[in-house]
């Protein structure tokens, strides 16, 4: 039989033990504010399952024995509940597919999987509404789903260059209007550049060189006269004439690269109006007439 004094001591000990439990890593179980951060854990574990080869052991410390915020390539918010803000795994020879579970990382603002060997289609990232920087250049991605990025309403920069993307530059591609930088260079996209591009009022760089794009120079681009600085359409099959007032329509251009297409007619003398032009390459086209004084 224990004395009342002993029972009180025991109860006290139990209480202390419980408090300790709640404050330690086991706290995940007892505190609801950590539910969101378990969404992140599951999204990352699912992403890890999609990776079939990791020759450098880049994900060797992706184990539930340590908090995911300390895993290689992960950066989290600095306050509780710790949420994934960055997934940064460039140049590690990773192979596999990019899973749509990354779309569950609602605090993610940077996703850099460039210079790896990810294959398959780029997934729909439907809840990644904070995503600003998306770099998946130099992989082996074969497709992009038209709506994949439509919910990424904070997206500023996306780089899909040096992949194996085929088919039409998707006309209904739900590009968020926040975009400043688009790079699809060195893929196998065909068809014409969709008019919807003219709705991206913040777009500064449009880099679509080395594809199989055809049709006329996309006039919707002239809707971007205030923002557009870099226009790179080289090595495609774009054709016909450029409008004489080209340089007045895009007065802020710095880089204009149209070489290796099928443009014909005169080189617009109005290019001299774009005073900021630093690089202009119109070579390997079918332009005729005099070279204007720029
Ligand atoms: C992503 O979140 C949805 C609910 O929003 C859930 O049904 C799904 O299982 C999650 N996927 C992963 C891999 O965590
Ligand atoms: C996991 O690996 C990365 C890169 O080597 C390192 O910065 C990080 O501290 C490691 N985390 C743990 C918990 O060992
Ligand atoms: C693409 O990445 C591979 C390594 O993953 C590298 O060997 C190759 O040079 C890169 N290509 C370009 C054009 O940067
Ligand atoms: C975008 O988000 C909304 C609301 O969360 C959802 O209903 C819709 O299916 C999402 N669209 C895509 C393409 O993921
Ligand atoms: C041009 O931009 C306006 C918004 O400023 C937009 O309403 C319109 O649809 C755009 N036109 C084209 C052809 O994209
Ligand atoms: C313009 O093109 C040149 C030469 O390719 C390059 O060095 C420079 O970084 C480009 N500028 C911008 C703003 O892209």
UniProtKB/TrEMBL annotation:
Residues annotated as signal peptide: 1-27
Record gene name: LOC106866865
Family annotation (Pfam families): LRR_1 (PF00560), LRRNT_2 (PF08263)
Organism for this UniProt entry: Brachypodium distachyon (Purple false brome)
GO molecular function: signaling receptor activity
Domain Leucine-rich repeat-containing N-terminal plant-type intervals: 39-77
Keywords assigned: Leucine-rich repeat, Repeat, Signal
Protein name as it appears in the record: Leucine-rich repeat-containing N-terminal plant-type domain-containing protein
Subcellular localization, as worded in the UniProt entry: Cell envelope
The family this protein is said to belong to: Belongs to the polygalacturonase-inhibiting protein family.
Domain of life: Eukaryota
Gene Ontology CC terms: plasma membrane
Record flagged with keyword Signal: yes
């Amino acid at each position: 039989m224990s004395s009342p004094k002993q029972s009180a001591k025991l109860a006290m000990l139990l209480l202390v033990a419980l408090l300790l439990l709640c404050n330690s890593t086991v706290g995940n179980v007892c505190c609801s504010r950590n539910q969101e951060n378990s969404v992140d854990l599951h999204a990352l574990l699912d992403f890890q399952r999609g990776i079939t080869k990791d020759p450098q052991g880049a994900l060797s410390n992706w184990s539930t024995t340590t908090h995911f915020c300390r895993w290689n390539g992960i950066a989290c918010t600095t306050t509780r509940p710790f949420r994934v803000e960055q997934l940064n795994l460039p140049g590690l020879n990773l192979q596999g597919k990019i899973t749509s579970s990354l779309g569950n990382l609602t605090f993610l603002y940077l996703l850099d999987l460039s210079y790896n060997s990810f294959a398959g289609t780029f997934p729909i990232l439907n809840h990644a509404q904070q995503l600003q920087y998306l770099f998946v250049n130099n992989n082996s991605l074969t497709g992009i789903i038209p709506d994949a990025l439509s919910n990424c309403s904070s997206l500023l920069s996306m780089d899909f260059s040096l992949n194996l993307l085929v088919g039409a530059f998707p006309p209904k591609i739900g590009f968020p209007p926040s975009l400043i930088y688009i790079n699809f260079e060195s893929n196998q996209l065909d068809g014409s550049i969709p008019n919807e591009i003219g709705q991206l009022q913040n777009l500064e760089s449009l880099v679509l060189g080395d594809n199989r794009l055809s049709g006329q120079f996309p006039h919707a681009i002239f809707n971007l006269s205030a923002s557009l600085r870099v226009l790179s359409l080289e090595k495609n099959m774009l054709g016909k004439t450029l409008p004489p007032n080209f340089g007045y329509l895009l007065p802020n251009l710095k880089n204009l690269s149209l070489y290796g297409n099928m443009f014909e007619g005169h080189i617009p003398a109005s290019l001299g109006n774009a005073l900021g032009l630093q690089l202009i390459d119109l070579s390997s086209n079918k332009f005729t007439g005099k070279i204007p004084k720029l």
